[in-house]
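Incident log, support desk, overnight shift.

02:14 A customer reports that sequence design results differ from what the structure should imply. Their input is reproduced verbatim below. On-call engineer (initials T.W.) acknowledged and began investigating.
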């Protein structure tokens, strides 16, 4: 029995077109700024997002960290949602590598309230760290891949800028957000000072993330990347797959949203499981399983034994993420296996 892997879109494998592009990419030393394939990818990414410049980074985690370091100095304050990936899942790099002070502001359904953000920016006072940055995340992972509508996003940026803060957007899945919102990804990039997105999630690259911003900002992010040990040499082998992703894998993300809907509807028909349909806006499905009476880890073990992989979100929840590896037939097979596992 082949496992159906719905743990994350980070688990996607490169396409044949990517492997072919990797094999034939012209290469050079990127630290000398001489890799032509990296140049092509960085130009393409900057143009697609409507920014002056772009930088290829090895991971989303490093890209976020390099942006934090480029925006703020140790001791500065960052307004950030405690449910954001940067706060929750990046090993505290914000504090222990960038040396920044988090000022947590809770989002609801992945959406920050501009009034909460404004209230969190304290006036200058000898006792306070200097607030420098607002971090946003779209789509928002821990709320189930939810989308911040463009109008709200713009208002948050206006609020931050009016208080003298820069804005960084963790747009690991910005193309999912843009497709769901029915706008171009560049509309979300327009008002932020930096945006990072991942080539390695639904876009299916084996690795790589992009930072986009002004030329001046990208120079600072480049220095931060180097300081973090992320300077690369013949990085064109990564960039070649990234070019294929940006040229041919973006529009198909809509298919992953459709399969997530199909999956969510089917899960709601399985006794003991429930999905709030309004939270399923992109390719993630957060499932409440308290009705099964099982702990999250016990349920995950059962699902695995039945041939389906999920990620735990205890207490009482697990997560499925759809990708190009699951069409409607695979989703139906997954639902069948989940039903049998839960009923057993
Ligand atoms: N998210 C992963 C895990 O780390 C949780 C996943 O499976 O969803 N920003 C956001 C919003 C992300 O979801 C992720 C990865 C990252 C940044 C980090 O990207 P990588 O894994 O490339 O460092």
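02:41 Re-run completed on a clean worker. Output:
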């Amino acid at each position: 029995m082949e496992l159906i892997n719905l743990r994350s879109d980070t688990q996607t494998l490169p396409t044949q077109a990517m492997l072919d592009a990797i094999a034939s990419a012209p290469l050079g030393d990127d630290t000398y700024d001489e890799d032509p394939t990296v140049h092509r990818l960085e130009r393409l990414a900057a143009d697609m997002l409507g920014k002056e410049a772009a930088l290829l980074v090895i991971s989303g985690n490093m890209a976020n960290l390099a942006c934090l370091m480029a925006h703020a100095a140790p001791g500065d304050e960052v307004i950030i949602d405690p449910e954001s990936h940067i706060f929750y899942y990046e090993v505290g790099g914000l504090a222990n590598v960038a040396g920044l002070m988090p000022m947590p502001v809770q989002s609801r359904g992945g959406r920050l309230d501009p009034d909460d953000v404004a209230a969190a920016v304290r006036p200058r006072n000898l006792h306070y760290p200097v607030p420098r940055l607002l971090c946003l995340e779209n789509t928002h992972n821990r709320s189930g891949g939810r989308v911040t509508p463009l109008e709200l996003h713009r208002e948050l940026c206006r609020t931050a800028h009016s208080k003298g803060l820069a804005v960084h957007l963790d747009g690991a899945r910005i193309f999912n957000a843009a497709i769901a919102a029915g706008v171009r990804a560049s509309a979300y990039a327009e008002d932020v000072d930096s945006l990072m997105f991942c080539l390695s999630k639904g876009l299916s690259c084996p690795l790589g993330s992009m930072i986009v911003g002004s030329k001046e900002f990208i120079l600072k992010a480049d220095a931060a990347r180097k300081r973090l040990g992320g300077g690369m040499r013949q990085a064109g082998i990564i960039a070649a797959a990234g070019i294929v992703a940006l040229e041919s894998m973006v529009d198909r993300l809509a298919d992953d949203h459709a399969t997530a809907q199909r999956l969510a509807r089917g899960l709601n028909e399985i006794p003991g499981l429930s999905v709030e349909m309004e939270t399923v806006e992109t390719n993630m499905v957060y499932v409440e399983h308290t009705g099964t009476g099982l702990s999250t880890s016990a349920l995950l073990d059962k699902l695995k034994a039945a041939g389906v992989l999920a990620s735990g979100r205890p207490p009482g929840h697990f997560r499925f993420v759809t990708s190009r590896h699951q069409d409607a037939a695979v989703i139906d097979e997954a639902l069948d296996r989940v039903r049998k596992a839960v009923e057993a």
